[in-house]
Amino acid sequence: MTAVFINPQLYVQKNDKFTTGIVYMPVALAYVVSFFKKNEIAVEVKDLFGQNPKKSKLFQDKIILGDDITTLKFNNKNKIKCFFVYANQVANHNSIKNIVSYLKENYVGIPVVILENSQAVTAYSLDVVQENFFSFGSDYLVVGDLEHTAYELYHNLDNKDKLKLVNGLISKDFKNSKINFVNELDELPIPAWENFPIENYWDLGYSHGPLSSKRYLPILTSRGCPYPCKFCVVPKTNERRWRSRSAKNLVKEIQYLKRKFLVNEFHLEDLNPTVNEKRTNEICEEFIKEKINITWKIVSGTKVESIKSLDTIDKMYDAGCRYISISPESGSKELMKEIDKPFDYDHALKIVKKMNEVKIFGQACFILGFPGETNQDIKKTRKMVFDLTRKGIDEIAVFIITPIPGSRIFDKFTKLENLSNLTFTPTWRDDYKVLSRERLLLYIIFLTTKLIFHPIKIFKQALNFFSKNFQTKMEMVPYKFLKITKFQYVSKKNN
Questions:
Q1: Is the dihedral of CA 153, 43, 25, 358 positive or negative?
Q2: In CATH terms, is domain 2-176 a member of 3.40.50.720?
Q3: Which of 83, 158, 192, 249 could make a disulfide contact with 186, Cβ separation 3.0–4.6 Å?
Q4: What is the CATH number that goes with domain 207-486?
């Protein structure tokens, strides 16, 4: 019998192609597929976005990229034991809903299971919105680490008494949301990228992290995050538990992926990869020792205070690190205390200066619209953008807070009508226009300051855009905008 795994289409906000519609290769899903294969279970993967990412369809205020579920054909539908649908991003909720509804109507009797993406801040806690999923036909929800729970579910589908005992499993009839953590990450098999259309991801020419190579792959060096930030879903989906892989295990995976897929660029999609500085140094030392000769980038953000020593930055560069995203969030200490994420302002400036010196490109992420944010808080954020830019930060990313289900601020917003509207461009917020203007102002401050203190960088980044050798996300985003616009035009013409 076969387990079918489905990755949904990608939703892009029509009025903001720049910020929305981030491409994530489904690394957590690839882990589950690999785990099933290791245990000799037949698998079939249908990546709706990945198999046709240039196909575009307009629906209301969204651009939908990828194949519709109705176009899919399965190798042997009579041998399908269950469907696993990957809830990769909350913005793709409507796609997930459509997939489940179609499967329940056309494959009667085959269970449909939703897999939580617990390793992304753009995903959502299935536990919090479980009734939403059950309302359109989902049979089971798997939360937390997926491998063992999904495997136990598959083997016990005909025994509900056993299912009730499976940690990380929720149904209409029972709830066991205690996470079945994988504590020994080294024991997991390498993600099964051979089952995914990775060539199509490469052909796009853009990704979540800045692409400076035609071929890349995401990698998870750890899982979870120990910090309690109120705007983030991760404290709920990982219970503030951080687990890491060994340096030797990482080298083993990288060497394998280099040989098999001819990849030399890796994007670290960890929620917080540098939590343990000793481990960070061990990884760098192992990379240098084994001469693996790769470029790697921390693309999802990390807490800059965890990089305590400037020497660590030197070692990261020597080991192939060329990009680090940090998350200051706000320049206001008062607001950061309210967010529950203390931030060392002065240390961040030192680290950014050092990154600039050794030529590691850097991003600083900020949020606007946190409940209780004042004009004084925003003024302090403007100053921080100026200070970080002067020290050499290469780009900023400014997001308007959206209430992710599972975050501690989720219940503070009442105007939300559709989960797919939970993007970083929340036009449904009453204060959206005000926050949008402030976001624009922060970008203006950044670009003006950069032009004054680092004019050569501005020139080089323009060249990077035209050469498609992206060192920052800001260089890549206009390219992504143009590509999606082209997809729209071609699809409209063909139809």
A1: positive
A2: yes
A3: 249
A4: 3.80.30.20
